[in-house]
Amino acid sequence: MSPKLSTSDSATIDSHCQHISPKGDRCHMLVDQNHRPANGAKRPTLCAYHADRLRASVPPVDPEVLAADLLGEIDDFSTAGSVNLFLGNLVKQLARKRIARRDAVALAYISQLLLNSLPALVREVEAENEAEQEAESVRIARRLRERSRELASLRDPQSSGSSAAAPRDGERACQTP
Ligand SMILES: [Zn+2]
Fold this sequence. Notes:
Layout: H1 48-57, H2 63-71, H3 80-95, H4 101-155, H5 166-175
Bound molecules: zinc ion (ZN).
């Protein structure tokens, strides 16, 4: 007599209810085929009576409440920290049997996909930042050149042709406005 028949993993292909009483007696009723099993079991494993009792013992959780508990303070999943937080919440809800195992497995899988996509996301952000910095340094260099040309022409209005050394002075002048 196996004492662990109440778990869905040990469900055998068997037409009798899998419920075991605290004394170890197996229920003799036939499995209720209309009972939709909870917690990821593939086929009904309980008689109508025990299926009802199980339903009563696992209070149905409002999906909105469950979502709020799972998401907590998480705004988006763009960091490993937020995905990790979500997985932690998922484990808590699963441990309290507030979420079906099947749903938990699906959410864990999606979390894995999110984690896998993070390095690409980081590269994308880095590339954007780099492009921005490059554009900014081009703008600064152009402004410096314009400024130094202005300064050079102010200092020496006649010799606008001999501008070879002028930009260096101009740059220095720009740094101390
Ligand atoms: Zn039963």
